[in-house]
Each structure stands twice: as structure tokens, then as C-alpha cells.
Predict the structure of Aminotransferase class V-fold PLP-dependent enzyme.
Amino acid sequence: MNAFEREPDDVLAELAALREADAPTHGGRVLSYVYDSGLAELDELAARAARLVQPVNGLDPTTFTSVAAMEAGVVGFARRVFHGDAAGQGSAEVVGSVTSGGTESCLLAVKTARDAWRSAHPGDVRMPRLVAPTTVHAAFHKAAHYFGLALDLVPVSAETGAPEVPDVVARLDDDVALVVMSAPSYPFATLDPVGEVAAATAEHAIALHVDACIGGFALAFQDGLPQWDFRVPGVTSLSADLHKYGYAPKGVSVLLQRGRDRQRRQYFATTAWPGYPVVNPTMAGSKPAGPLAAAWAIVQVLGEDGFAELTARATTATATLREAIDGIEGLAVVGEPVGPLLAVRADESAPADRRVDPHHWADAARGAGWHLQLQPGMAQADGPALPHTTHLTVTPVTDHVVGELVPALVAAADTVRGTPAVDGGALVAGLTAQLPGGAQALAAASAGLDSDTAARLLAAFGLLGGDGAGGALPDRMAPVLALVEALPGPLTERLLVELLARVVEPRD
Ligand SMILES: *Cc1c(COP(=O)(O)O)cnc(C)c1O
């Protein structure tokens, strides 16, 4: 082959150089997004398994029968650990699909429930409702938006992060297509009251999805929790991500459904075109088999004992971190976190000059090479405002580095103790004063922005270069989150769309 424009080795060297600038995916320094088992041999196994199926098209498990075998293996493992195998035969059988990730699992759970609701309510023109606590993952906002459901959010307690069961039950009516509970929630690691809510949804024959995307494959190996999986009779579907605590590379999750007939509504099928019959349980057509193969291999190699051991490591590290954070003056862990994640807020009971703002804290920790995730505070309709927090996702590898992490967290708190949270309102006022047109321009902007105006606003906020070039994240995220908290939601969303779109635009 003489037509290569560049040497493959040079191209790979360029990619390796680009990767140098990424946040570190291994070693436990990034406490969100990545789930490091700490076992290099698992990563190697995943890579080899993915490589073996690289040319396969996961679209058709009858042509590529390895896909069917691996999917059955992964779904079988998930069904076992989430106690769906004891659910019974026939109409009660728990069946499932492997999807491309948590969002797809959640989207498909909502689509299935909507279609089941429609078929149970022929001629009903109402928009079906999706009822969930405000802590439900944003994937359900997306699902409601994509599939035409009204999202009915139930407030949670600012102390516990959990909804009150009567507040959920009060919303159940015959227009509710689905209730979602998290096990646990991403923002605060709350295990929602699955059992109590399921008793009510079952009575009204309303579907109940348990979103165990983040924690499912860890919680399944943790003792002493209230039941939250298919042992609870009213649970109709459950999602859990293998690319989180299943330690697989990104692109693999499972969606389990109670009952074959329910699950068949997840499928899309058509023969109404001149090509091959299209029959898909998931959103994509042609799809990779690599993430599935990696997850399958990991599940085979680890088995339940391996998962239990890795969960124990993450749990130990979480307990150590929790104790350490409880001991830091001015910070407090939110509620009663369940599983290997937690959120941290300012301790309101401490005097103001001893309080630690969790966002300044995260920025200080980042300066020392530890990436924690800032979460905005927000108002809740019919409920208390939720504090702004910093999120930590703890993985087995954290256990190896917790001896370095704890002193870094203590030192970060010492650096920022007493520094008040960034005043988002003042920040917005200051920035708008500099804008041509001032506050009016901002108000007008809220009504609808074109791309160039959005880019100019971002540049004024210091988030985009003047040439419209998006760069790396700023050194300090606290002011950015303060803007997110202070600006009107639709404006922030539009600005973030612009930022993300510009970041990936080609620029030569
Ligand atoms: C991560 C997550 C999701 C969405 O998963 P993706 O894999 O990021 O698409 C859904 N629910 C919860 C609770 C999660 O943590």
C-alpha cells in the first residue's frame, strides 16, 4: 500500500501525545467518570476481548452468534446478582438487553413504560407522566424530552437527599407511565425508598424502574441494605452499568425487565422497507461488540467473588474517606450515602469563618492533583433548596491511594476554610456591566441566543477564547458553578451547548 498519507506509527504517536493532556484515567486521582479496578490485568483482558470481536457487527446476533452468547452471559449474570432469576417463569420471567450505557438503558426503560402505558390507555390523548425524585439522573430528563412524557419531580430532603414516600404516592394517578427510584442516586448517593414506593406502584399497576446504573454492580455485593432489586415485587425494570462498577470500558450497560411481554415493547421492528428486516432492542443499528465482549470477559473472570472483593475495597476506601471528611471542620457529608460514592457540603452548623465551601475545597484539591466533581446547588419546586456540593466516586483503586488522598483533602480544606462561596449574583452583575448593552443584553439573550452571541457571552465570562476557541477547563471551577447557579437555567444550558459545540469544532 503506497497511498498512506502518514505513517501509522506517527499517527499513533500523535494520539499518545494527545492522551497525555487527558485527565488521568487510572490511579485514583479522578473521583468521577472513571472506574478503576486497580487491576491492570482486567484492563488487558478487556482490551484483548474487545480486539477479538473488533470487526463484528453487534446488530445481528443471528449472523454473529458470539454476540448472542455474550449477551446471554452478561444478562444472565446481571439477572442473578439482582435476584431476577428467582422472579419466576413465563410472564414473570426477568429478561434483558445489553445497551451502550446508562443513558440508553434509562431511555429504553422510559420508552418501554410509555408504550405499555399507551397500550393500556387506548385513545387517551394525555401526555403520560414520569414521576421521580429531583435527584433522578438527568438521563430521565432526556428520556422525558425524547419520548414525550411530562417529568414530575418530587422534592427531596436537603438533609437526607431522599424523597418522602407520601410525596411520591400522592402523585400516583392513571396518567403515570413510570416511577423511577435510584439505587443509589448520583448526586447524594441516596438509596431511594424502593420497597415502600413499590408497594404503592404495584397496587396501582404502575411501572417502577430502579436506576442502579452507577451503584448496582457494587450494591449487589454489599450486605445489610434494604431490598432494592427484583426481590421487591413491584420493581418492573432495572438498569446497571457495566462501564461503571463492572470495570468494563465505556459503552456497556444492562437493562433488565420483569416479564417477556413488557420487554418486547422495548423493541423496534419493521419490515416496511426494501432492505433487511430491522429488529432492534436498542437505539443503534450497527453497533460494536467490543464493550460487550470486554464486559463478558470481566464477568467471567471475576465471578461473584471477584466483584465482592472489589466492592469491599471500594467500600473500605469510602468508609475511610467518610470518616476523614466527618473529621474536617467546616465540611459535612450529605445524608446517609449508600455505596461507593458520597457528596460533601459546607457544615452550616460551623461558624461562617470556620466553614469550608465545597467548591473552593474541590478547586484546592485539584491544585494538588485530585479531581473532585463540583455539583451546583438548586431550588426545588415545593421543597427546600439543595446545597451545592462536591461529589466523590470511589473505586477499588482509591483504596491504594487513600493514604495520600486524605491528607490532601485535609490540606485543601485548611487552605480555603472561612472563604465564602463565590457570590454568583455579584459575578453575573459584574460581568453584565461589562457587556455591551448590560443587563438588558443578558435578559434579551435569555430569550434566545444565536451561536455568535452565545460565544461572545462565553468569552466575556472567560470560558472561551476571544477567537471562539474553547480550551481546557479553567483552573478554578467554583466561579463557573456559581454562574451556573445564578444564571437562568435555559441561558446556562444554551451557553453550555455553545461551549461544548465549539470545543469540538475543527479549527484550521
Ligand atoms: C451514570 C448514570 C446514568 C447514565 O449513565 P451513562 O452511562 O453516563 O449514560 C444513569 N443513572 C445514574 C444514577 C448514573 O450514575
User: Anything to note?
Assistant: The pocket of pyridoxal-5'-phosphate is lined by residues 101-103, 106, 137, 139, 182, 186, 211, 213-214, 241, 253 (CB under 6 Å). The two ends are 28 Å apart (CA to CA).
